[in-house]
Amino acid sequence: DLSEMLAAGTKDVHEKAENTQFVKDFLRGRIRRELFKLGSVALYHTYTAMEEEIERNKHHPHFAPLYFPAELHRHQALACDLEYFYGPTWQSQATCSQATQRYVDRIHQVGREDPVLLVAHAYTRYMGDLSGGQVLRKVAQRALKLPPTGEGVKFYQFDAIHSAKAFKQLYRSRMNELDLDMDTKRRLVEEAVRAFQFNMEVFEELEEVGKTIQDDLLDADMPVHGTLGGDISKCPYYAAKMAASGGTAYVGQLAMAVLRHPTGQVLFATWFAALAGLAAWYLM
């Protein structure tokens, strides 16, 4: 099945992506507000490009079964987030970075020249957003002291999807039913790997920017654990993977941290509630 080929074929690059410093810091709740904003800008340009090409190719036989604009499209939600952070003139401030532009250019090239490869880009982004979006939303809200009503993190809210697990099963089923030969499936795996690499380039670019800006770190009252990691571009499943592989040391460390920091209890509860779902997604 295509979904199995994609999961297996991107495993190595997935693990590399989860070990970038930007992602590690995010999942530890140690987020620079300015970098979070710039990350949202990068996501806005990425999703705008991807959804423009999806609209262009929504009747293409190799993409039409995966066309779910009401459920999945993110660029409008990201526009709301950017307006919250930058104000009404956000569009003049949300400039596309060099690494993001390379990603955007590739998406447009695929949409124009080889639309079937849009499947790889949509899979890489949307399935990850559904897998870990609620976890990341809670981390960002806590660390950046954002309103509980969702301002600034609309990107992570899929209001038209009532069950992320059921929707992901539907999406994978639709992917597996696409009439594709083996050569095309291999090209899709290669394109998904390329999508991960583009995401890593964006993370690395953000890390470099972080070295030049004032340390405006907002700590979510959680301790820093050097081994904690995740992947914001696909699915922040580190905790789930640790649990699935018997990572009791990690769980013990986190529990002790919560005992020392009562304000971390809500965040811990969120991780625990998402644990089973994330583990199931990764292991399938």
TrEMBL record:
Cross-referenced InterPro entries: Haem_Oase, Haem_Oase-like, Haem_Oase-like_multi-hlx, Haem_oxygenase_CS
Molecular-function GO terms, alphabetical: heme binding; heme oxygenase (decyclizing) activity; metal ion binding
Assigned keywords, A-Z: Heme, Iron, Membrane, Metal-binding, Oxidoreductase, Repeat, Transmembrane, Transmembrane helix
Top-level lineage group: Eukaryota
Coiled-coil positions: none
PROSITE patterns with a match to the protein in the record: HEME_OXYGENASE (PS00593)
Family of the protein in this entry: Belongs to the heme oxygenase family.
Name this polypeptide is given: heme oxygenase (biliverdin-producing)
Protein species of origin: Tetraodon nigroviridis
